[in-house]
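Quick entry between incubations.
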Amino acid sequence: MSEGSIEARVQRSLYAARRWHPAEIMFWLLAVAAFFLLPRQLLILNEIAILGLFAVSLDLILGYAGIVSLGHAAFFGFGAYAAGLFAKHASADPLAGLAVGMGAAGLLGLLTSPLILRGSDLTRLMVTLGVALILGELANSLGWLTGGADGLQGIMMGSVLGLFEFDIFGKVAYLYSLAVLFVLFVLARRIVGSPFGLSLRAIRDNPLRASASGVPLHWRLVAVYTLAAAYAGAAGALLAQTTQFVSLDVLAFHRSADLMLVLIIGGAGYLYGGLIGAVAFKLLQDVIASFTPQYWMFWIGLFLVLFVLGGRELIHGGIKAVVGRVARLGRRSPT
Amino acid sequence: MLTILFDGVAYGMILFVLACGLSVTMGLMNFINLAHGAFAMFGGYVTVLAMQRLGLPFLWALPAAFLVAAAAGLVLERLVYRPMYAKSHLDQVMFSIGLVFMAVAGADYLMGSSQQFVQLPAWLSGRFDLAGIGVGRYRLFIILLCGALAFAMQWGFTRTRFGSRLRAAVDDARVARGLGIPVNRLFALTFAFGSGLAGLGGALGIELMGLDPTFSLKFMIYFLIVVTVGGTSTISGPFFAAMLLGVADVAGKYLVPQLGAFIIYALMVVLLITRPHGLFARGRA
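Done. Structure below.
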């Protein structure tokens, strides 16, 4: 470890972390293969892809920057409403709607980011929760715009790129969501593998030390919060577009709480955690809902409690072993 | 106008009784217990059951709610909460949200999802006029009872040996432990007491807030507002925060009902931005 300056070593380790591992390629091939292998499950696959994108968004701020949030649904819902309203009143083009949803949610994230710069974890939890609740109340009371409790109806989507019409089986919906997820995921992967991502982790581990070594704490947090908000907005926009409906439920508290569970299952701090968690969560929800539709909340709660009390080590032990091996491979290969 | 103020104060009193246990446990162990509302709901259901099945009078059902919720708090603290203290805030939040979900679904399963009611004794129902203000008897009863409780707690917190140990432990648990204060036992007692108070608050609040399985989720945010705005190091902080919240909420609902809960959320966010360490925070490092 003597050769080269620290910069060179950091650069090398970043390059190594950025390289695609065969397991990652397998993961995405499986996601595409699911389209052909499970033609009856495309609607739920679409939901998984959207939830996965949403979870990646939370992972960006929680796993990498250490910002706890109980109100991430605010951006999800805002993006969903923005995309829905755009499709209804301006243009039916999905990609333009996606951009609008992302932009709107990102702007909201930028505007609310001063709120999370101050105070302790508790204050952050409260403020993020408060923002989501305020938005929920707003969406409820601005009935002329959002449809209130009835939801935003009458969204007609155009075809993706002018070529692919949305169908009722969710074929185009799943591929569209998966493509958006993939593009945004690659972008996120590049971002967390950059010096910027490294500085975020430094902030998460020790804010005082990070700022002492010259990391502009506030601006980095604002930047990642805005980015994560835009990602959540994209997930919301995808939901609005593929279901052609937006209800108050997109802003509900349980959505933020479920999202936390997704990250807890999958593990925070590496981007695949959100995706694996999304798959596991949806399957779990499906199984539980099939034998006890009314009380599935109880079982979700039980899972949360058991996970935190110690079950997590059991499940994550296997994942960690794999990840550890990947990291070791990365370290060994450049020498 | 004054009636609104009066109702708001009564509402705030209940919020205080519900939330003050949370504020002490949060200050003492730095533990974010979102499941506090579940204890309140538990107390409420105990009251309902005690009155309907056992035929206890309302006044006897209240201490029963307190004791049962406190016992539940003691047991749960011992069994499942204690391993959580060393974990991160995020884990604590997830853990207690899980408990809330279980409580909500469990109450739904056991008691049904409908709203529960209690029959108040005759001398507590109805209202009378006092100098032009409509005074609900039950609300007056709440104000007197909770006011007395608040005074007793303030006295206990500042004047007794238990209170001074508690304050020492809240300020710096490690040093307090080094001085030979049994922080864990102190905490278990406080947790049980706080849970009991929550149960009592839940019982008192059936008439004003309603009681159904979503209670603990619906009012979780209220408790948290009280605690974050009031700070965790005093009794008076949460007290005034609860008063403020109660009056603001009731006034908002009476005067501009179309805004709904918007007012209190906005109030909370504004307060948290301007005073991130609580309204009455002492300078704590």
